[in-house]
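Q: Predict the bound structure with zinc ion.
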Amino acid sequence: MTAKNSVLIIEDSPAVGMLLAEFMRKLGYTDIKTAETGHAGITLFKQYVQDGITPLIFLDYNLPDSTANSIMSQILPIKPFTKIIIETANGKEEETIKEVIGLGAYHYLQKPIHFNDVERIITILEEEESYLEKKSQQKETSKDTDIDEEKITEHINFILTTTSQISLNKISQILGFSNNVVDDYLKKLESKGRLVQLDSKKEIACNQCDSIRTSQIFYCPNCKSSNFKLGKLIEHYDCGNITEEGTYQNDLCPNCKKEIKALGVDYRVMQNHYICNDCNEFFPEISTSYICLKCENKFKLEDARWKSSVNYKVVNTK
Ligand SMILES: [Zn+2]
Ligand SMILES: [Zn+2]
Ligand SMILES: [Zn+2]
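A: Predicted complex:
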């Protein structure tokens, strides 16, 4: 369990990075590394992995040279069980939060960062790890009979805080119990008004091991690299140059050195394009495939298996 003390913070603001590092030190973590770019973060992550360590990761949603999707698409295929906590700007759309959780992030942390929030997430994470560790030490056969009711309820409650809808299949797989066992708990929560049963839901499952713990991976359509960023491009009509906004220094086209003058007349801005950091190609859309977080199998959407189970709406008690 060498991973316990290692934390990697990928955060472009040195002030926020230092604050987080300080919080984690207070929580007893000793091996803390900070990277200010996505590139530096991935390099540090690979070093950790080489040393046999999977660090806990704090990841800034908006990095200058990368996106959270890009970083996660580079990390999860190497270590599918890496715990990634995404830092989102205050007031970030609920959609974004759902999206990053759906992509395999462990949790999210809203900025400005408060010690209490960090402590709460870390406490749950540590409890969950020790729970899973204990569970993996038990014999497979004692799986459904040797159940710590209180712990399961606690974990289900935690899982429910990360989402507004969840399927029976998904909860069962996170907890590692059969649908029959988990269903009893969900029925209880339903009678307490915490959950509302919806229609059944079909979910993408691994075409090798049937697990629905999968994550979407993004990559460049040209060179297949997952190292990309989201940015603005400017097209200079006169010479046809299309490059990033930042390459037009002092409003001069980097190709023909002429000044760009009027938007829509001699140039246009192309918003929200994915720009590959490896081959420099840009795309309005990025390619995607899936990775199974259980057996590490990679597969395309069209090859996915689908599994359906009862879906629940989570009633927010806040
Ligand atoms: Zn699988
Ligand atoms: Zn590329
Ligand atoms: Zn030009």
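A: The mean pLDDT is 88.
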